[in-house]
## 1
Amino acid sequence: MKIHTKISDTIATKGAAYFVLIDPDKIDNDKFPEFLAFCSKAGVDAFLVGGSLLVAGDLEKTIRQIKEHSQIPVIIFPGAVEQVTAEADALLYISLISGRNPEHLFGKHVLAAPLIKRTGLEPLSTGYMIVESGRRTTAEYMSGSNPIPRHKPEIAAATALAAEYMGMKYVYLEGGSGADNSVPDEMVKLVADTCSIPVIVGGGIRSAHDIRNKIKSGAKIIVTGNYLENPNNWSLIQEFAEAVHSRGNIDL
Ligand code: 1GP
């Protein structure tokens, strides 16, 4: 089954989907299988693998390890054209629509398109918006773009609607990995109320409470990464997954 169909089915049956971001640079090889076991048991719906700045990590090796130890689909979250590999199931084909840098809006996509076709990866076209979250994030710096101001949800909503009208399948509200503050709930709500494509929310999410608020605001996919790099937090994966799949119901 196509990954887009799988995600749509998950949203239809569980209310929302939970993605865990894995940065190949941050993996402890000895403990990785244990981490994957926590994710499988919790019902994580997909892994995002990649990063804005891959220094030493081996993307292909990481995906092979995931495939060896779990059945969870793997979606590349590319920080560069080099991060296109047939080992994965799909790829977030992200256009940085909050910025005006032509390379990140369309340029890299032209370079990547023939590679994606050759690998047979399923491209998931995604309008990617970086949202101001406190300190400057790697995503902001690496893309050389200004984030959408936190107190301007109407800019995010208009941008998301434009992405939908352009035919994109998802919009991603990104606070940046390890952000001080996650994307404001008011912004998630206005974007979700304005457009009809699924809203992905990630960056700086560290609690089930925050996840429930995002789900209640209309988020359809939640991404957490940084917080789960510490093994002490792995026991929370289950709680996070339940919060994503709770349909915002605090009693669940
Ligand atoms: C970053 O949205 C993802 O691209 C996840 O962010 O690492 O802060 O959870 P965190």
## 2
Amino acid sequence: MQDTTPFPYAAGFRSLTEETPSPVALAVRGEIPHWLEGALLRTGPAKFEVGLRTYNHWFDGLAMLHRFAFARGAVTYASRFLESNAYRAAEATRKIAYAEFATDPCRTLFGRVAAIFDPKLTDNANVNVVGLGGATAAFTETTMPLRFQPGTLKTLGVFAYEAPLSGQVSTAHPHYDAARKRHYNYMIEFGLRSRYRLFSVSDGGVQDEIAEIPVDRPAYMHSFAMTERYLVLVEFPLTVSALDLKFSGKPFIRNYRWQPERGLRFHVVEKDGGREVATAAGEALFAFHHVNAYEEGDGLVIDMIAYPDAAIIDQLYLARLRAGTPLTATGRLNRFEFGLGGGGVSRRELAPIAIELPRINYASRAGKSYRYVYGAGIEVEGDFLDSIVKVDLASGGSARWYERGCYPGEPVFVATPEARAEDDGVLLSVVLDVGSGHSFLLVLDAATLNEMARAETPHAIPFHFHGNYFPGRSPTA
Ligand code: CO
């Protein structure tokens, strides 16, 4: 008989309503390296109830910003709700006023036309924090990043692109090419003729279109791949009709259909010039996260965390998670390879482990051949992400950090100032300890996954998605 005892991970899906606007010093157990001087800035859903309603899905919750600031071996913690229009309206009216991933607003406020075509696109930027055009911005999957002040976490407003392109849906995972000094991303413009629009953003915030790819049924793509010369969109067969999106009356993601017969479609586009140099087709799979990609000979290597289908989205509805239901959909590190001149796509699994929220040494290896992948893993079958894993792509081996009752988030890699090896640095992860009812910031040696330090926060921090490390003292002005 199957064990139906709920998993204690459910504690990571309770709302956090308490803010910590002034940084508090955290007690450190172990030693935080003194060279670590900067801030880990993260965003994620924190509040799941508005008035009498509860958001439907983990991805819907109102965003809170979290800041861990490091100096001379000490660490402070601060948090504030992102003051998006979605948050302000929810606070003011006690009603859900903006449409999220899987929750629509109260109908009385909203009418019948689907939210994605409404001027009130959500700005509840609960997915990622990125440095963009000299600003620090929180991202969600609409086209409106929100700027905030990295020292105080004060929300400043929508990031104002120069001459913004039109589109409704984008990703919270822009790439950055340090050689070209440009961010890259894509957006979808839904319409009678829908299209993907690849674009770059200069360090000055100017948005430039690179290419448009017409599409009959746009795919749900949470991220994309970048090599030194190319951007690669991988269309998963989870697709939507723009008309359904507009008129169905269902929340955003519920309009998407799994159509495995479409398989995977790869679009390879030159960063410079925008020419689509190749397309390729593969067997049906789903993924949220690309890990890395690079050019090799006349072909491309593209690594992502793949699932057999899109069932993972259904398993992340809040009611299920709050019941501690076992998760059966698990991501695997997969490598796809194909030639730019044509031919088939090959795929293989790179490690026999469950992994999500992948990170690499991005500053030195993005778009290039690389050796190490870090992520959150699953040690106990059916549990939520309960460990930190490291995969050595050269040997196929993996290492892990695991502690019973502890649930780590995305491990962010920070290189040592004089780093020589690719894994010379630390991993920073926010871990929920369900036993103590608190979270802690965990510092691991990225080479060995040995614990260097931990520092407990004043409360539990709900499970969240992504963030980045910003070196140097955060400006407070
Ligand atoms: Co993501």
